Amino acid sequence: MTLKVLVAYATKNWSTAEIARTITEVLRKEGLEADMRLVRDVHELQAYDAVILGSPLYEGRWHKDARQFVKRKSEALARRPVWLFSSGPLDPSASEGKIPPVASVRRALIRIHAKEHVTFGGCLSEDAQSWTARTLVKAGKGGDFRDFKQISAWAQRIGATLHGDIAVQPDGS
Ligand SMILES: Cc1cc2nc3c(=O)[nH]c(=O)nc-3n(C[C@H](O)[C@H](O)[C@H](O)COP(=O)(O)O)c2cc1C
């Protein structure tokens, strides 16, 4: 049986979409079925054995679409293995050490019994949507701090865990 994984993500400026794409591609290479969807377009989880949910941080919180998804689907999420990721820091800190989840994500982690949370570095470029974002870039606070090696390694580990889950038979063999 091939396990089917949903990689759901929120985004404003699309850099988190590229993180989600990398995760999806790695899972497929690992022999899993993986769908990548904008979280606001996800209505049903029935078809999925596991979920990876990610969101950028804006002013210390996840994107609204991701927060609402967790509220809307908390029961269905709690019944599946779920991994969470945040993208945000515009400096190398996320590649250098583990950054804990912000308070609301920590609460979500507990509510849906998520297996793990990781914070990846973020990205902010000149073509960002909002005036505030572009002002930050002009002030030298932008850049691309996504570490695709780190992201791929994380996805590989999830793939291995999911393969392990199916390898374990009900009698524990
Ligand atoms: C107005 C604004 C507020 C931000 N707030 C945070 C924050 O609180 N914590 C953080 O780590 N990153 C913060 N960031 C960085 C974003 O999370 C980062 O640029 C992220 O990669 C954006 O993802 P997206 O391109 O998918 O929208 C902020 C960026 C902007 C423009």
TrEMBL record:
Organism in which the protein naturally occurs: Streptomyces longisporoflavus
Any Pfam family the entry gives: Flavodoxin_5
Protein's recorded name: Flavodoxin domain-containing protein
SUPFAM superfamilies for the chain: Flavoproteins
Sequence ranges assigned to domain Flavodoxin-like in this UniProt record: 5-159
InterPro entries: Flavodoxin/NO_synth, Flavodoxin_dom, Flavoprotein-like_sf, Protoporphyrinogen_IX_DH
PANTHER family named among the record's database cross-references: PROTOPORPHYRINOGEN IX DEHYDROGENASE [MENAQUINONE], PROTOPORPHYRINOGEN IX DEHYDROGENASE [QUINONE]
